[in-house]
């Protein structure tokens, strides 16, 4: 059974059930990731929240890598945050890539800490889920010995409402897929696509996948759609 150590990084994070002070937020990412990992039948080691302290983070990384095959964190990887993750990774192991041209989820890190694989996911809740679905999920399936691991296939549907998009990054907008009166499929977004809006994921049954070069898309155009796990 694949062992995955999990923790969130950030002084502002608190576990569910505790009282929030000014400037604090609940650590929703850890609970989301725990659920996603459990669905993949991983043996999850929940290490809680680690503050923005270099020594505490180094202890957490060292302990996680010693006890697990994979280490997953959320938060502490974006430019401008009070983070030490990249420095610690370069000290304890290696960074293989950092930042990718996707939205949401640009600040995704991957590397090694000793013999353990490391995935540093963003801090925003939707970006965490998106990077998990598009990168981490298939990697974990391969590490479990699955030889049939592959992302859910893309198929096409007609866009029922327009989408605004700037070229430059592949974009995964959360969508609602429905069968039209003519038997074909139509899709629309769940509304506001901010990466901190959890309801954009909870209301979705698919991703609308817009390529790097794509700009605004008008209603009536055909777009690529990827069903969420569990619907195939």
Topology (elements, then pairings):
Elements: E1 3-9, E2 13-14, E3 25-26, H1 28-39, E4 43-50, H2 54-67, E5 70-74, H3 85-92, E6 93-98, E7 102-103, E8 109-113, E9 116-121, H4 125-143, E10 154-159, E11 170-179, E12 185-189, H5 199-202, E13 206-210, E14 222-227
Parallel strand pairs: 1-4, 1-5, 2-3, 5-9, 7-11, 10-12
Antiparallel strand pairs: 6-8, 8-9, 10-14, 11-12, 11-13, 13-14
Helix pairs in contact: 1-4
How would you describe this structure to a colleague?
By secondary structure, the chain is an alpha/beta fold. The chain is 25% helix and 32% strand. The chain contains 5 helices and 14 strands. The chain has helices at residues 28-39, 54-67, 85-92, 125-143, 199-202, and strands at 3-9, 13-14, 25-26, 43-50, 70-74, 93-98, 102-103, 109-113, 116-121, 154-159, 170-179, 185-189, 206-210, 222-227. The strands form 3 sheets. The protein has a 6-stranded mixed sheet with strand order 4-1-5-9-8-6, sandwiched between helices. Strands 10-12-11-13-14 form a 5-stranded mixed barrel. Helix 1 packs parallel to helix 4 (125-143). The longest helix has 19 residues, at 125-143. It is globular. The model has no long low-confidence stretch (mean pLDDT 90).
């Amino acid at each position: 059974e694949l062992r995955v150590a999990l923790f969130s990084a950030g002084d502002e994070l608190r576990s569910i059930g505790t009282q929030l002070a000014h400037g604090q937020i609940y650590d929703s990412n850890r609970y989301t990731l725990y659920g996603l990992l459990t669905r993949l039948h991983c043996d999850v080691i929940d290490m809680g929240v680690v503050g923005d302290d270099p020594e505490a983070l180094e202890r957490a990384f060292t302990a996680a890598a010693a006890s697990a095959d994979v280490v997953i964190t959320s938060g502490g990887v974006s430019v401008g945050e009070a983070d030490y993750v990249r420095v610690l990774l370069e000290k304890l192991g290696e960074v293989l890539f950092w930042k990718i041209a996707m939205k949401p989820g640009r600040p995704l890190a991957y590397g090694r800490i000793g013999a353990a694989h490391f995935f540093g996911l963003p801090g925003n809740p939707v970006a965490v889920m998106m990077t998990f679905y598009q990168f981490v999920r298939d990697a974990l399936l391969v590490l479990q010995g699955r030889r049939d691991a592959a992302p859910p296939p893309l198929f096409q549907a007609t866009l029922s409402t327009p989408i605004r998009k700037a070229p430059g990054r592949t974009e995964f907008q959360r969508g609602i897929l429905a069968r039209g009166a003519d038997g074909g499929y139509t899709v629309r977004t769940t509304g506001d696509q901010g990466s901190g809006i959890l309801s954009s994921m909870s209301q979705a049954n698919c991703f609308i996948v817009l390529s790097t070069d794509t700009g605004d898309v008008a209603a009536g155009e055909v777009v690529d759609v990827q069903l969420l796990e569990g619907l195939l």
